[in-house]
Prior knowledge:
With 375 residues, this protein is mainly β. The protein has helices spanning 2-8, 17-30, 97-100, 107-112, and strands at 87-88, 124-125, 188-199, 202-211, 217-227, 233-235, 240-243, 248-249, 254-261, 269-278, 288-298, 301-310, 315-326, 332-343, 351-359, 367-374. The chain has a four-stranded antiparallel β-sheet, with no helix packed on it. Strands 5, 6, 8 and 10 form a four-stranded antiparallel β-sheet that branches. The protein has a three-stranded antiparallel β-sheet with strand order 11-12-15, with no helix packed on it. It is rod-shaped, with a radius of gyration of 65 Å.
Amino acid sequence: MKQFKDASYPGQWPLWIVPFILVLATLACGFGRADGPVMLNRLPTLTRTPLPTLTPTSQAGAVAVAAVEDVGGEAPGVVATYAPALIQYNDTPAAPLSALIDPAVDANAEIANQSTPTTTPTPMLDNNLSAATPTPANVASVATATPAPTLTPTPVPPRAQRPIPEPTATPTRVTLPTAAPNSRTAGWSFASTRVYAGSDEGLRLYGEMVNDTGSAQELSYVSGTFFDDQGQIIADQTSTTDYAPLEIIPPGGRVPFELRVNNIQSAANFELWAKSTPHDSAPRQSDFEFVDVNGRDEDDSYCLEGALANRGGDLEEYLVIAAILYDDQGNMLGFGDDYQADLTEIVGDTTLDFDICIESPQADITGYELRAWGR
């Protein structure tokens, strides 16, 4: 007994003996069941899964592989989380388990220490995407690509279209019957006629009607028939409007007139006539004198001003003064008139002032003429 006590007294042993003993005890525990079966955890064989067809989107989603945490108890194997839609594996078959285990490490010691080697496969990313940094979460965080917003084009309002003018219909040539002889009065002639074509109001014609009937005539109207270059009638009495400053024309009298023809712009030829009835009295066209006459331009008109002296009898009913403009061919450019009534005081040396303006003609004025009729 005494010898045992002396041998076990720790004060006589060096201090490095203590950790050495602890190591031996640990090894003894580890090899105590070396004759039992050795448990090895084998990695599951990885099966190739066909990748789904990737549809390119406007943004690529991030890929993350979660880190594997240590799980208490016996480790069932290596746990790896993948983004299945973006990870593919090499065609190289899985290596045998022996190639993954370091032969220098004792399997029993590793199992006893609950230390399971973690193998993290390196994914091959499609479309040359780089692997994202693993997140510390237990479940892999895979960023979902935000689909690009669908752009709805703003409808363009239909362009406003300019209305297409309809072509002017060509008037159908209708042969109109020539005016019946009883609609005309024989003995009328026409002089100094001039036609203005292409006006907005149609064709205009100026001229003088001459009463060669041998008696005073009360004028009903002046009209005409108009022809094209083929001799076809293009207008007649139904298309004309006339004006004359005097209704009753003495025999041999010359009175200016204007004739407007609607719906035509020109005519190759025309024929004029007048309709009148005999009258028992006629106005006087003599014994009138024009004094101090002057002409002037005013705006778009040519004006004649002066005074009229009555060298004949009293003017008990009316007085008509006409101012007529002529071109260098003696054709009438236009006329104006002035009507006065009850001028009994205009006699002898008493004169009547007048100022008549005429719309400017399209040709140069080379002459004018003043005429008067009264009763």
